[in-house]
Amino acid sequence: MQKTLKKYWGYDAFRPMQDEIIQSVLDGHDTLALLPTGGGKSICFQVPALMQEGICLVISPLIALMKDQVQNLKKRNIPAVAIYSGMHYREIDRAFDNAIYGNTKFLYLSPERLASDLARERIKRMKINLLAIDEAHCISQWGYDFRPSYLNIAEIREWLPNVPILALTATATPQVVEDIQEKLAFTKSKKVFQKSFVRDNLSYVVFEEEGKQEKMLDILRKVKGTGIVYVRNRRKTKEIALFLRKKGIAADFYHAGLSSDIRSQKQEAWTTNKIRIMVSTNAFGMGIDKPDVRVVIHLSLPDSLEAYFQEAGRGGRDGKRAYAVLLYDNLDKNYLEKSYEQSFPDMTAIRQVYRALGSYFQLATGGGKGNSYAFDIVEFAQTYKLAILQTHHCLKVLKDEGWIALTDSVFEPATLKVVVTQEDLYKYQVEHPKLDNLIRTILRTYQGSFANHIKINEKQLAKFIKLPYDILRNHLTQMAQEGIIEYIPQHEDPQLVFIRERVPAENLTINTQLYDFRKKRYHNNIQSAINYATTARCRSQLLLEYFAEKDAPECGICDVCLGRLKDKLSDKDFDFYKNKIQIQLQGNPTELKELVRRFSSTEEQQILKTIDYMLDNGFLRIDEDNMIYWKS
After folding, report:
1. Taking residues 3-24, what's their average pLDDT?
2. Is the dihedral of CA 73, 74, 80, 82 positive or negative?
3. Rounded CA gap, 552 and 559, in Å?
4. C-alpha span between 405 and 66 (Å, rounded)
5. Which range has the top average pLDDT, 33-42, 242-251, 623-632?
6. N or C: more exposed end of the chain, with fewer CB within 10 A?
């Protein structure tokens, strides 16, 4: 284990629990690992897979995460490939062949892919040493991000009877933990590893504020260092980032609707501290391991504590003090209640959207199963004069019921292959002098275009031959239409996949019992989030109890715990000692012991309580030499 870790990652030791999880997998046990965000889950399946002959099959729901992990493995000279919706059939076919006959060590698949006949036939022929399930909570209807396609996983276990399974997740309630094991058909020799969800360096803070933006600004001015501000929608990301920039804070915005190039640039700027604050929807943060995030602010109530805990947990991974701040007002509660009502449309609306999908993609009844299409929900809704929010909720119902799957945006570069002989291509160049420079440049720049589909950078190519981008694509399209090349333009769109064949809309059915269950569960999630914000108990205890850690001590650093220090003094006494401390310190920093000595011995406890509260809430600052400063 240690040799493999050192060889490929350069680390001398594992993080807590990683080696135990790896040993469990090597011993052949079905294993469930619950590790907090940033706990190094990928190491737990990558190390044992590398130690054994064969290939590791990884099921992951997010295309961006799959591509990122594949890229990181390739940097370490570990052969890995990902297959997901939006790829061309030939690329998929070649990737499966390499997994069977080549030296591929890790094959990443989206869960939807497991339903395809091609995947099933090829997987049966692979020598698989481990089945790794990332974001395993997605298999449970009790979880906050249920994906019906995850239920296909248990079926493939029948073809892999002696292959252990490793399920990984960062957040799961006891119900979800049990459900994961049942739905993945864990054997009797199963093992569960759960690291405590306690984050003793993360201070949870909740403020009910009418002026949330001003309070956010005040917090960001007091807490130095990198931060994330989570907002509810894409429009807000830009609006809040602009507000912060106007106030002198280096901020940028991020959401899934931006192109992958722009998202990568923004992420890189934030990771390298060129940007201090990233304002984002929940699309930001997954898979990003930045240890020195000092503050994570949510500008509205979350709709589930699982999602909130995971997002807040991106702060303070370096073990130093960080703050997870939730700002809310009465409008947030109203929004959640309204969202609850809208999230579960009636069958008339669901059938209307389903019928429109069939027309939009020109699918015949009985067809479409397994087909993947680029999908723009705004254009779709406008085409059929549908309300976009209701359309979104109807699509989610269709997804939860296993009729369709929706993936995140995925960038796929253009590919081409020359399908004529070299002699015929030369004749074509002579007959089409305008295309000669383009063809010669492609042949010089990209190797193997006669044998394989090669990936080309269209924008770079257009710039190199000094041709407008649109003209370049027209030329390539022309060559494809004339049978000279096979050409697939680059694209970057979310993908919609039809999991089942299309049926007449009036025959569309849903499981009403499960639908009612999800509706009730969603309402319970909302109530748990509201209770967290409005209950005057240690915030850490409330979160940990939600994840069944019943006996956790008070954290001592959340707003409720710190508020108790103040509450032990009357408001009159607190203001009295605060003013005395201010007089002592303004313009004259003082060592802590000396400051306390200046008051009578009978006042010592009250002074210490007051100083503690003032330090934690930004009135005072203390340096390495225990010198106390008044922060004006």
Report:
1. 93
2. positive
3. 17
4. 17
5. 242-251
6. C
Q: Report the mean per-residue pLDDT for the chain.
A: 88
Does residue 13 surpass a pLDDT of 70? yes
Q: How far from 422 is each of 247, 440, 443, 448, 475, CA to CA, in Å?
A: 62, 12, 11, 12, 19
* Structure tokens that stand for 572 in this block: 């009159």
Query: Between the CA of residue 377 and those of 7, 76, 458, 591, what are the distances in Å?
Result: 46, 38, 26, 61
Identify whether the C-beta of residue 351 lies closer than 8 Å to the C-beta of residue 231.
Answer: no
**Is the separation of the CB atoms in 64 and 287 below 8 Å?**
yes
DSSP state of 457: -
Q: What is the DSSP string of 503-554?
A: --GGG----HHHHHHHHHHHHHHHHHHHHHHH--S-HHHHHHHHTT-TTPPP
Is residue 203 helix, strand or coil? strand
Q: What are phi and psi of 409, to 5 degrees?
A: -60, 140
Q: How far is CA 76 from CA 69, 70, 71, 438, in A?
A: 11, 10, 9, 35
What's the confidence (pLDDT) of residue 564? 59
Give the residues across from 191 on adjacent strands. Answer: 31
Predicted pLDDT at 565? 53
CA 454 distance to own-chain centroid: 30
Please tell me whether residue 459 adopts helix, strand or coil conformation. Answer: helix
Q: What is the pLDDT of residues 429-442, one digit of tens each?
A: 999 999 999 999 99
Cβ proximity of 494 and 379 under 8 Å: no
Query: Beta-carbon neighbour count of residue 56 at 10 Å?
Result: 23
Report whether 4 contacts 50 (CB < 8 A).
yes
Residue 205 confidence (pLDDT): 94
Pinpoint the alpha helices (H) of 82-127. 89-101, 117-124
Nearest CA among 282, 234, 275 for reference residue 37: 282
Q: Nearest 5°: CA angle at 206, between 200 and 209?
A: 160
